[in-house]
Structure formats: C-alpha cells, structure tokens
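pipeline/complex-builder :: batch 7 item 3
reading input block
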Amino acid sequence: MMWKRTIGGGAVLLLVGMAAWASFFIAPTERTMGLIQRIFYFHAASAWAGMTAFSVCFVGNLLYVWRRLQKWDSLAVSSAEVGLAFITVVLITGPIWAHPVWGIWWTWDARLTSTFVLWLLYLSYLLLRTLIEEPDRRALLSALFGIFAFLDVPLVFGAIRWWRTQHPAPVIMGGPGSGLEPTMRMVFFFSVFAMHALMALLIVERYQLEKLRTEFDVVRREAEAL
Amino acid sequence: MKNLNSVFAAYMIGWAVFFVFYLSVAKRTSALREEVERLKNSLKPGK
C-alpha cells in the first residue's frame, strides 16, 4: 500500500513539474500581456481542479443525506478541504496576474466576488464541522450546508458569461470568438490534467485521515464505555 | 523579461500552499495514528 502511494505521489509530482515546464517553455508568449499571461496555466487549471473537488464534495453530501453512510461524509469533507486549498491558490495567483495587467490587485466584479464568496462558504463549511460534537448530527448539518454552498459553483462559472466583468471573457466554452491558440490550448489542458491528478492525490491522502478519525471515535467510545 | 518576478512568485506561492496543505494532512494523520495506537494499547487486557 505504502509503495503504491509513493509511486502515485512521484507520478503526480512529475506531471505537475512537466506542466510547469510546458507553461514556461512550450506555450508561446501571449502578444498583449507578455510573460505574465503564463500564470494562466497555473491559475485557471487550479480553478478547474478546485471546482471539480467541490463537485465531488457536493456528490458526497447528496449521497450522505440519502444513504447516511459515514464514508460519504468523509469523502465530502476531504474534497471540501482540498477544493479550498485550490481556490486559495486561485485567489492568490489571480491578483498577482491582475496587478501588472489591470493596474489593480482586486476589484469587486462578478467573477472575483463570487469566487471569494465560494472560498468563504467552504471555509464556513469546515468551521461548522468543528462546532458540532455529535458525529451523525455534524455529518447531516454540514452535508445540508455543503449542498447550499455548491449553489455558488455554477454562479462562478457563469459570472464571466452572463455579466460584463473586469475579469477576461472565457477562452474555453466561451462561445463564438473565444478560444486559444492550439499550443496554448494543449499546454492548458495538460495543466488541467496535472492539477486534477494532484487534486485526486490530495483527496486520497485527506480521506485516509478521515478514516483514521472514524476509527479513533470508535476506539474512544470503547474506552469511555469501560 | 518583464514581470518574470511576478510569474515566479505566483508559481512559488501556489506550490507553497499545496505543500503546506500536504504537510498539514501528513502531520495530522501521524498524530492521530499515534493516538489511536495509544488508546488501543490502553484497552488491551491487563493494562
């Protein structure tokens, strides 16, 4: 089991290293923004992986409400924490990209605000869990809150499609007139793949912790009963 | 090479976030594993 995880971790490290290398040395320099546009491959790929992690959390929450099995709660909390890490990266790399291009670090436009609200919602989801002692009640209430929090994900996706914003228009699934130069597109999708591999690895690691926590609760109850 | 520092900073800070997160998960797992072992040992007959 340990060697499988080591090989998995090594493969993911190799993938993300290759993605970083490709975004610096294979992707062409963008004409208007220049070098700073290379943040796009890290920023947008992290955003996609974060949204996928929140989607996994949503599925886990729905399945917990339906089946009331501990494993779905464990999956939901693991992916929520991983998703939060990815969106933290998005909220840090975004302003670093924005400052030389827009002349400002931040603005309260629809995409940026909805992403920040998403970050706050999942932070609240994790904080809520620390406030409830009883495991079944904690799992149910946080699952219901998690389902509500996920409503912001389509809003983040649609913000640059439905409203005119400071954030650039989408280059993927953006309709007529949008798109990426073929090499940029290839590097971007490779980065998305690498970030998803990293996301999966982190969810698996975090899930092991949650399984151990469940075991700890069982052993603790046994000890208290004696 | 305009903005090279910003690009470098974005990647470095991003990787640092993932690395710190991974370390935090590994540290919590290790601490909890020790705690589970300690509790299991205390439950063994004769302890």
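note: Chain B has a mean pLDDT of 91.
queue -> next item
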